[in-house]
Design brief:
With 375 residues, the chain is mainly alpha-helical. It has one domain. Helices cover 68% and strands 0% of the residues.
């Protein structure tokens, strides 16, 4: 999944102010998706030559965990820095270079291998370069990046809320927001049942996507958890808000998330945010977090292609899953070190140099080194 905290090197085992458990939770959500794509999704899309022996159909919970985590760390970053310009520039610097690279890679894969059942079209490519192809009626060339569209829209939501002062009273703002989500989504669902062929259903779907209504309650849970950690507001009120957000999420959910899983995942996030799960400070998990954005972007289509090739060479299904996992981690580590980090450092230094030329009273500090990373 997209990372949330800015870093140019693997974090030390205890960097001041850093909560390693949150890094580990990011890694867990990413590994959850990898296992989901290499077992259940691969079986559904391509089919194993023989029985794998197991599948892992729980990818939706990795996404759920990540959105809650994203709400927490991005609210923490933006409310601490209170500089929306640096925040969004940091997001673009962090997200776009590697994302555009994976789009180029997928163009090559689609043009070379028939297994993907995809053709390269100019309109679809341009829409995908925006990170929000679904808003333009196209599918994601790299299927996992549907979550990135939601992340980008969440960043816009945060910036608008900060600029308008709504983020100064997040409890009230979020309760209004999730109430709108509840009313709209239930109304849209009821209308679709009554008038399944109406053109308004498509328009309602665009509204849902644009305002990420089905997932906003998850981000709200993370934002309110940040308020609780920072001791802003009455604890019982904030806890009630988190409970209300979780309830709304399940009332409008279309993907069958188990409420018990939500309680367990959010409980892990709460404990982790207070640094109460030392077992999560395991070094390999911290490293996976370090490369998690590249791993999120590059594992699915590339790993599936490798699995198909290895199966054709006679490797059993379990062997292909293990090989694709190792391969994906290695590729992601290489991309992080030799592409992502250098590009990010160059762009960050260029932005700092550019902003440092402005008059001293033109804005806040140009530093973006503490900005949180992308989904």
């Amino acid at each position: 999944m997209p990372e949330q905290q800015s870093q140019t090197d693997l974090p030390p085992m205890k960097k001041p102010g850093r909560i390693l458990e949150l890094d580990a939770i990011r890694a867990i959500s990413c590994l959850n998706l990898l296992l989901f794509h290499f077992t259940w999704v691969y079986q559904e899309k391509y089919g194993f030559a023989s029985d794998l022996g197991f599948t892992f159909p729980y990818g939706k919970y990795g996404v759920q965990l990540f959105f809650m985590l994203s709400g927490l760390v991005n609210a923490l970053t933006l409310l601490k820095k209170r500089n929306p310009t640096n925040f969004i520039v940091a997001r673009f610097i962090r997200i776009l270079p590697s994302y555009w690279l994976v789009i180029v890679l997928n163009i090559v894969l689609f043009s070379t291998f028939s297994m993907y059942h995809e053709t390269v079209e100019l309109g679809a490519t341009v829409a995908n370069l925006s990170t929000m192809p679904m808003l333009f009626g196209y599918t994601n060339m790299e299927p996992v990046t549907w979550t990135l569209q939601i992340e980008m829209l969440f960043y816009a939501f945060l910036m608008i809320a900060l600029a308008t002062g709504l983020l100064d009273k997040p409890m009230r703002t979020l309760m209004v927001a999730i109430s709108v989500c509840l009313v709209c989504c239930l109304g849209f669902d009821k209308f679709a049942l009554a008038y399944p062929d109406s053109i308004w259903n498509g328009r309602f779907r665009i509204a849902e996507d644009l305002f990420f209504m089905r997932n906003l309650p998850l981000f709200a849970m993370g934002i309110l958890l940040n308020e609780l950690r920072c001791k802003r507001g009455k604890p019982w009120v904030l806890c009630a808000g988190m409970l209300a957000s979780a309830t709304v999420f399940h009332l409008i959910d279309h993907r069958g998330h188990n409420p018990v899983a939500t309680v367990l995942l959010f409980g892990m996030l709460v404990a982790g945010s207070y640094g109460k799960i030392p077992i999560l400070r395991w070094r390999p998990l911290i490293y996976i977090s370090f490369i998690s954005y590249s791993l999120y972007l590059f594992h699915n289509n590339l790993g599936s292609g490798l699995m198909k090739f290895l199966e054709s060479c006679g490797l059993p299904p379990l062997g292909t899953v293990i090989a694709a996992t190792i391969f994906s981690i290695a590729v992601s580590a290489a991309i992080t070190r030799w592409f992502e980090q250098p590009i990010t450092n160059i762009l960050r230094k260029s932005w700092i140099k550019f902003t440092s030329r402005r008059p001293a009273n033109s804005g806040q500090s140009p530093s973006i080194s503490g900005a949180s990373k992308a989904s």
